[in-house]
Structure formats: C-alpha cells, structure tokens
Amino acid sequence: MIDSTIIIEKSVIIVAVFAITMVMAMYSTLAERKIAAWLQDRIGPNRAGKGGILQPLADGLKLFSKEEFEPNTPNRFLFFVGPAIAMSTALMTSAVIPWGDKLHLFGRDIILQATDIDVALLYIFGVVSVGVYGIMIGGWASNNKFSLMGAVRAASQMVSYEVAMGLSMIALLMMTGTLSLREISAQQAGMNWNVFYQPVSFLIFLICAFAETNRTPFDLAECESELIGGYHTEYSSMKMGFYLFAEYANMFISSTILAVLFFGGYNYPGMSWAVENWGVNSANVIGIVVLFSKICGFIFFYMWVRWTIPRFRYDQLMHLGWRILIPLSIVNIIITGIVILRHDIMVYLGL
After folding, report:
1. Assigned domain for 244 exists
2. Which domain holds residue 193?
3. Which of 4, 103, 136, 300 has the most CB atoms in a 10 Å sphere around its CB?
4. Is 37 part of any domain?
5. What is the 3-state secondary structure (H, E, C) of the chain?
C-alpha cells in the first residue's frame, strides 16, 4: 500500500514544479522584451509596476480577455485540441528533472524530483516528439493555407532535428551508462561536467534545442514575413496564449535539460564540503539556486541569439540538420566508442 505521506509529498512537488514552470515562462516574456530593448539601446516595458515587473500579468490579462475567434473550419474539435497538446507536452517534460538533491524536513528525506524513472531521457524524447502534433493539428485544423504551411514546416523541422538530437545523446549515454537524469547529475559532482568530455554532443544538442523550440534562427514555422503568423495565425485569446506560453515553457525546460546533462545540474564545486559544514538543507538550497542560475544563463543565450542572428532560409535549415549535424553526431559516436574501448583495454591489461 502506498504511503499517504509520499502521495502528499509528490503532489506538493508536482504543483511546485508546475507553478515554477508557469512563472518562468511568464517572466521570460518580460525578460525577452527587456533584453531586446537593452541590445537595441532602448528602455522596454516600464509602465506596469515598478520597472515593468507587472507587465507579464498585464499582457496575460489582456490576451485572455480578448474575443475568441474561430475560423470556418470543419475540424472544430481539433482546432481546440492543438494548443492543448502543445501546452500539455511542454509541462509534462518537467516531471523527470532533478531540481536538487534532497531536503531533510519533518524527519524524512524529500527528493526534489516529481518522479525518478530509469528511462528519463527516453521519456523526454517521447514527450517532445508528441509536441509536434499540437502544432501540426492546430495548423491543419485552422483551414488556412499559411497555417498549414507553417505546420508542415514545423513538423519537418522538428522531426529532422530530433534525429540529430537523439544521436548526440547516444555518445553521452555511452559515457555515462545510464538514462536516469538523477544519476547523470550525480556523476557530475564538483566540476566533473559532461560538457568537458562531450563538447560536440553539447553543441549539437544546443543547436537542435533551438530548432525544437522554434526559436530564431530556426523560427521558419512562424515566419511573419512569409506566413503572417504561421501555424497560429487563426488563433486568438487563450488558445493563442497556450501556444505562446508553450514556446517559453519549452525554452525553460530545454535550458534545464542542458544544465542537467552537460553542466552538472544542481552540483557545484565544494558541495560535499557545504553538506558537512552547513548541513544538507543549506547545501541543497544553494544547489537549487545554482541550477536556476545555469538555466537563466541559457535562457539569456536563447534571447541573445534571437536578437543578433538572422533567420535561416528553409533549404539552409534542412541542409544543416541532415547533411551536417547528423553526420557529425555519427562521427562523434564512433570517436566516443573508440576512446571507451581503448580505456577498457588499458584497464584490462593493467596499463
């Protein structure tokens, strides 16, 4: 029988992760506008609240209070399902992410993770691959040729870059020997970060993350100069908000995954010393702050790239994915296999 305390504990963690993801997605919109203003030497939002701190709330209230518009489409049900799938998959990915090691509260150790499964990476790739259906269904059900073209672009782009992303992870898995994000984080204690051992995998994964989240320079699916608004052209009010929130939630989650896989997650130099001298709780609260600092660094990088690099042409997008990233990831797998085999032979021979 499942302990009711565990159910309450996991429920609190799930609600907290959901709230944090929503708040980060909401304030990423403000950060995007502020960073864009800083890069363009202007002020940015500064009216709603002190320094514009309440601007995301004002934007959300305005968006959700707008009139619902529905195009003349024979697929009304799918028109509603599209944004729901996009938003749901964006939030589901956070379930397997380790946000910290553990806290000792109420006489028990609380693991800061909604669920720890052995195949966490496979779960993430599975959920991410479902996310493309939200875009494809929404664009097709809109009964608009621009929306359909944007949806087709998004689907082909995401499917293409998922291949390179998956291959980049194989080299990392060969080195770590596990699919569990918690074990991958634990192996990077101190400064033993995977980015030092797999820089090519990190670079490929980072580029593919841009493509998977439809961020510039890979935002061909919502290219306003060609397709008006792309796959969400016909959407308004809350459904439009779901698509926009899903993009920023995906950006937050992909930044978290990058931090966990390649930059040690919640680990930091001197963490074991902090546990011994300051206690488990203090050391792991610092670990949570360190993790979110890494996440914010990647989010800033996403936004920096958006306002500095121009959009690719579609043929360039596909050329990069199929003819550069995939062969590069295969070569990286071969080199990693050779290095691991050489190490095993040296150990076996006692050299």
Report:
1. yes
2. 66-349
3. 136
4. no
5. CCCHHHHHHHHHHHHHHHHHHHHHHHHHHHHHHHHHHHHCCCCCCCCCCHHHCCHHHHHHHHHHCCCCCCCCCCCHHHHHHHHHHHHHHHHHHHHHCCCCCEEEECCEEEECCCCCCCCHHHHHHHHHHHHHHHHHHHHHHCCCHHHHHHHHHHHHHHHHHHHHHHHHHHHHHHHHCCCCHHHHHHCCCCCCCHHHCCHHHHHHHHHHHHHHCCCCCCCHHHCHHHHCCHHHCCCCHHHHHHHHHHHHHHHHHHHHHHHHHHCCCCCCCCHHHHHHHHCHHHHHHHHHHHHHHHHHHHHHHHHHHHCCCCCCCHHHHHHHHHHHHHHHHHHHHHHHHHHHHHHHHHHHHCC
Instruction: Kindly list the distances between the CA atom of residue 117 and the CA atoms of 120, 180, 258, in Å, as whole numbers in the listed order.
Output: 5, 6, 18
Indicate the pLDDT class of residue 2, thresholds 50, 70 and 90.
low
Within-domain flag for 36:
no
Q: Which residue has the tokens 């001298």?
A: 277
Residue 167 in contact with residue 173, Cβ under 8 Å?
no
* Tokens representing residue 300 in the block: 């800033």
Q: Is the pLDDT of residue 158 over 90?
A: no
| Cβ proximity of 205 and 165 under 8 Å | yes
| Contact predicate 133/194, CB 8 Å | no
Side chain identity at residue 23, one-letter code: V
pLDDT digits (tens, 9 = 90+) for 45-65: 888 888 788 998 888 888 888
Note whether residue 60 is domain-resident. no
Buried b / exposed e along 168-189 (16+ C-beta atoms within 10 A): bbbbbeebbebbbbbebbbbbb
Residue at token pair 């071969």: 334
Is residue 164 within 8 Å of residue 208, measured between CB atoms? yes
- Write out pLDDT tens, residues 186-223: 899 888 899 999 999 999 999 999 988 888 888 877 77
User: What's the alpha-carbon Rg for the chain, to the nearest Å?
Assistant: 22
pLDDT of residue 225: 64
